[in-house]
Automatic annotation (TrEMBL):
<comment type="similarity">
    <text>Belongs to the glycosyl hydrolase 13 family.</text>
</comment>
<dbReference type="InterPro" id="IPR045857">
    <property type="entry name" value="O16G_dom_2"/>
</dbReference>
<keyword id="KW-0378">Hydrolase</keyword>
<protein>
    <submittedName>
        <fullName>Alpha-amylase family glycosyl hydrolase</fullName>
    </submittedName>
</protein>
<dbReference type="Pfam" id="PF00128">
    <property type="entry name" value="Alpha-amylase"/>
</dbReference>
<feature type="domain" description="Glycosyl hydrolase family 13 catalytic">
    <location>
        <begin position="12"/>
        <end position="405"/>
    </location>
</feature>
<dbReference type="InterPro" id="IPR006047">
    <property type="entry name" value="GH13_cat_dom"/>
</dbReference>
<dbReference type="InterPro" id="IPR017853">
    <property type="entry name" value="GH"/>
</dbReference>
<dbReference type="GO" id="GO:0016787">
    <property type="term" value="F:hydrolase activity"/>
</dbReference>
Length: 538
């Protein structure tokens, strides 16, 4: 069986911001289908679709009201089938985003729980509890939600009395499932099979270290840790040992389908845990195939820092038999050009050079890689969106713009000199759901494809070279001695990758030499090297 996922490059499609086929200003599944030839030309192996399920969109689809349908905003099941079929014809695999930690407060099961009595089977599917204090007016524990505010909301019972509280580790519109209830596991088994029967190639699992909470729901010694870091660090709410049984079962379901036709279905988890060693526990041979390794994304621009996180990943994660799943960005992070550069509106300064270097470094590493849409265009973060257009629930919950995620979700520019830059293909009367800045014209796809020096060509050439190296997935990597500020390694297939982090001599460009090649490395950086991938991050 070909283990395609081990070295696959997957492109994350944030559906509402990719391409709008109806003219309503919101991207949709038909728009994704129209963009498939573009992604085929780029050279990716698959796409991961952000949630498109029926949802009130309090958190842009991560509040799911029905896991087995398509929200009319994005199309319908027939359009999803057309998209999957079209992708498969082009050799592109399709991964769905599944959200098992929480659902929408509009979900029928949660609505049934609100209408039921305390202690009922309906409420047992979620985390309902009596409040503390003589009148139950205090939350059951002191946990805070990751998106700000308490992690508990009190309901009004059907007779009008103040009632129980329910747990939501993100927003009140996203109640957490109770995975200690066997009905929850059975329901998600049904959901998995529904989509696998429609031909999907796997799932990206949201909040994969969540699901189970400490059985006693005790107070946390640091109740504001999740809200302060906006990460899943409360050890009572995340990374409970029982979660591994879920992934063993899901892996068995995927292998059942693989046994029928010889094609492996992929499970890749969003796993936020303290270190690479705990990360490795999620990708053991009978659990998830892969889990995003976020430490590379969060590492400062420093050769020693990159070497440290790469070494830890190769030692702990690759040792499980899985491969490391590298990522530099996603829909929750500041775009790479801006993160590595200066805090200016257009991300000028060192950001573009560093983002280019980081991209090629990621593509050179053994394992799989995920690319967030727009990174291949070098798009900067849109940092000056006015308050009245922000839609991120973090802003609504906290009143602060810190870590608000709208800036990386602005719709893609495809063509032209003014908004909507080809994003919406209707009559043009509907504006994109987030405003596009004027400078997006410089990053439009048509311009990027025409300029061989663009980010797009850098990614395309890197992907082509990567796909030509048959031993990429063998997992071997040896560090080389280098001058200060340079990171260099040799892979099992003999390719050398060298990255200048800003202090090594910059090689003089050679006329006629392509930006990306497997030719000689500058002698003053790696003396004696004859085959190298030289990346200048100055």
């Amino acid at each position: 069986m070909h283990r395609w996922w081990r070295d696959a490059v997957i492109y994350q499609v944030y559906v509402r911001s990719f391409l709008d086929s109806t003219g309503d200003g919101i991207g949709d599944l038909a728009g994704v289908r129209a963009g498939l030839p573009y992604l085929k030309k780029l050279g990716v192996d698959g796409i991961w679709l952000s949630p498109f399920y029926p949802s009130p969109q309090h958190d842009h689809g991560y509040d799911v009201a029905d896991y087995c349908d398509v929200d009319p905003t994005f199309g319908d099941l027939a359009e999803f089938d057309h998209l999957t079929e079209a992708a498969h014809r082009l050799g592109i695999r399709v991964l769905l985003d599944i959200v098992p930690n929480h659902c929408s407060s509009d979900h029928p099961w949660f609505q049934a729980a609100l209408a039921a009595e305390p202690g009922s089977p309906e409420r047992a599917r979620f985390h309902f509890a009596d409040g503390r204090g003589p009148d139950g007016s205090e939350p059951p524990n002191n946990w805070h939600a990751m998106f700000g505010g308490p992690a508990w909301t009190r309901i009004t019972e059907t007779d009008g009395r103040p009632g129980q509280w329910y747990l939501h580790m993100f927003t009140p519109e996203q109640p957490d499932w109770n995975w200690r209830n066997p009905e929850t596991a059975a329901e998600f088994d049904r959901v998995l099979r529904f989509w696998l029967d429609r031909g999907v190639d796997g799932f990206r699992i949201d909040v994969a270290a969540g699901l189970f909470k400490h059985v006693d729901l005790p107070d946390s010694p640091d109740p504001e840790a999740d809200a302060r870091t906006r990460d899943s660090v409360n050890p009572l709410a995340w990374n409970q040992p029982e979660v591994h049984d879920v992934w063993r079962h899901w892996r068995a379901v995927c292998e059942e389908y693989a046994a029928r036709d010889g094609a492996e279905r992929l499970l890749v988890g969003e796993v936020s845990v303290p270190n690479a060693r705990e990360h490795a526990q999620y990708v053991r041979s009978d659990e998830l195939h892969q889990a995003f390794f976020f430490d590379l994304l969060s590492a400062p621009w420093d050769a020693d820092a990159f070497r440290k996180v790469i070494s830890e990943a190769m030692a702990d994660i690759a040792g499980t038999g899985s491969t490391v799943t590298w990522v530099l960005n996603n829909h929750d992070q500041v775009r790479t050009v801006t993160r590595y550069g200066e805090p200016t509106v257009e991300g000028s300064g060192l950001g573009p050079a560093r983002a280019r270097a980081a991209a090629l470094l990621m593509l050179a590493l053994p394992g799989a890689a995920y690319i967030y849409q727009g990174e291949e265009l070098g798009l900067p973060e849109v940092v000056d969106l006015p308050d009245d257009v922000l839609t991120d629930p973090i802003f609504r919950r906290t009143g602060s713009r810190a870590r608000v995620r709208d800036g990386c979700r602005v719709p893609l520019p495809w063509s032209g000199q003014a908004s909507p830059f080809g994003f919406t293909t209707g009559d043009g009367r509907a504006k994109p759901w987030l405003p596009q800045p004027e400078y997006f014209a410089e990053y439009a796809t048509d311009r990027a494809l025409a300029d061989t020096r663009s980010f797009w060509h850098l990614y395309r050439d890197g992907l082509q070279l990567r796909s030509s190296l048959a031993q990429l997935h063998d997992g071997r990597l040896t560090w080389l001695d280098t001058p200060p500020g340079v990171l260099a390694f040799v892979r099992g297939d003999g390719l050398v990758c060298a990255v200048n982090f800003g202090t090594a001599p910059t090689p003089a460009p050679v006329s006629g030499t392509p930006l990306l090649s497997s030719g000689p490395c500058p002698a003053d950086v790696l003396p004696g090297s004859t085959a190298a991938w030289w990346i200048n991050g100055l």
